[in-house]
Write a structure and sequence with these properties.
Helix content is 32%, strand content 29%. It is α/β, with parallel strands linked by helices. It has a domain of 97 residues. The strands form 3 sheets. A 6-stranded parallel beta sheet has the order 1-4-7-10-13-16. The chain has a 5-stranded parallel beta sheet with strand order 2-5-8-11-14, with no helix packed on it. It is elongated, with a radius of gyration of 26 Å. The two termini are 41 Å apart.
Length: 170
């Protein structure tokens, strides 16, 4: 029994070490070209008159008053455009807001968030907005199936069983 616990502890330490190394080395492996902006937990602001190539943000927001030549992507954050974006804007679990006379030349995709357009704001191609329930429906289905499995196992393990006398009758 002690050996099993030590091996489990060793496995969890290995997994923790691997996760820590991955978190430390993943930013080094990411390659950003000149003009690309990639931030984690730090908001990205492109001021008026400034330009950026691509903008990617994890757990933060993007504020665009200038020009973005490629795509804008926000994971768990919002995108606010008051300037010009030449390609797509994608927000996962966040909102996209276009201010007065702001433009996005291609598509806008919002997954589990909302899209707000100011007066005179334009989107060149498609607008795709997936509401929150589209995200939560598969999650609720998976939770329901797992709950049903736990209920069935518990019902099988805790049910009453007939006690037979010893030795069994002949």
């Amino acid at each position: 029994m002690l050996r099993l616990r030590l091996s489990t502890l060793t496995w969890s330490l290995k997994a923790g070490l691997f996760a820590a190394l991955f978190c430390l080395l993943a930013p080094l492996a990411a390659h950003a070209e000149d003009g690309d902006i990639v931030h984690f937990v730090q908001p990205i602001v492109v001021h008026q008159g400034e330009e950026a190539r691509s903008v990617v943000c994890f757990l933060c927001s993007i504020e665009i008053d200038g020009t973005v030549h490629k795509d804008m992507v926000a994971f768990l954050g919002n995108i606010h455009v008051r300037g010009h974006a030449e390609h797509d804007a994608v927000a996962f679990l966040g909102n996209v807001t276009l201010g007065d006379n702001a433009t996005i030349d291609h598509d806008v995709v919002v997954f589990a968030g909302s899209l707000h357009l100011g007066p005179g704001a334009t989107i060149g191609n498609d607008r795709v907005v997936f509401p929150v329930f589209v995200f939560l429906l598969p999650l609720l289905l998976i939770v329901g199936i797992v709950g049903l499995i736990f209920w069935a196992i518990r019902a099988l393990l805790t049910r009453d069983r007939v006690v037979y006398p010893m030795p069994p009758p002949r």
